Amino acid sequence: MRLVCIWLLLLPFIAFAQNKSRPNILIIFSDDHTRQAISAYGNTLVQTPGIDRIAREGAIFKNALVTNSICAPSRAVLLTGKYGHRSGLVDNSPNRRFDGSQQQVQKLLGAAGYQTAWIGKWHLNTLPQGFNYWTVLPDQGHYYNPDFITMSNDTVRQTGYVTNIITSKSLQWLNQRDSSRPFFLVIGQKATHREWLPDLPDLGAYDKIDFPLPPNFFDNYKGRPAAAAQDMTIDKTMRLALDLKVRPNYEKNGIYNRFAPAEKQVFKGYYDKIADEYDSVKNDSAALLRWKYQRYLKDYLATARSLDRSIEQVLHYLDSTGLAKNTLVI
What pLDDT sits at residue 15? Predict the structure, then answer.
């Protein structure tokens, strides 16, 4: 019986050793993306079929921790496997620059015969090293008609919505790669980072939903000075023009002046109505606070909607090409 048990334990490893086809590795990196925006984690007010499929067909983490959840350090963790004090990035300070000369996962995989690529948001204050291919957004990037830095260090303006462009570039790279070699690809999405600009088809996607307020929504943090001093509240942190899009400057502001005329007409037309909503509650502090919360969630989740749609598109591509049989998707 002991010999049988040992043999059964060894079977999976023997099967893996006999399989000469190494798995492809695809990592989709979203940004400032909370689990509460994913229906696989129990949110019944939104639906994320793309991410839910990964959870359903693979694994879902419900008890997990991270070494560092801040934007740039979290990317450094993925690349190096190190804590922030080891990778050189402990926060998002602009004077901290990622040291690309250190050992990274793409360098190890490249040495083992993998084709490697990073496409989309990078945000490490230096350019990628050790990839066969990369094209990245400068700094945080823009939602509409974003710029991309190429491997020749040119900066090129792309037409369209950033989530769709990054997805399209990723699928194009997969189409053109050497199919005789396994690949390691990171799709670095900008969504759902502040200032949460939804794609045009997603404007108003959640306007008919009244999201319930958390039980501690009106907490005044009495007796907790550190909590009272932090600047991550709906009341203090939601900037009227930049975050809530109430009459932003479409001519001068760098976030809102990148629209093509047709895009601007649709986007501004929607948010002009939102500005009218603001006018109706701006003199009632409690009503205004609730309104800010609803607008924040509606914009955030609408931005996440295009992200999930792009994940569905990528999964469909893997299915249609047969790559799904041997690709690890994270």
Answer: 46
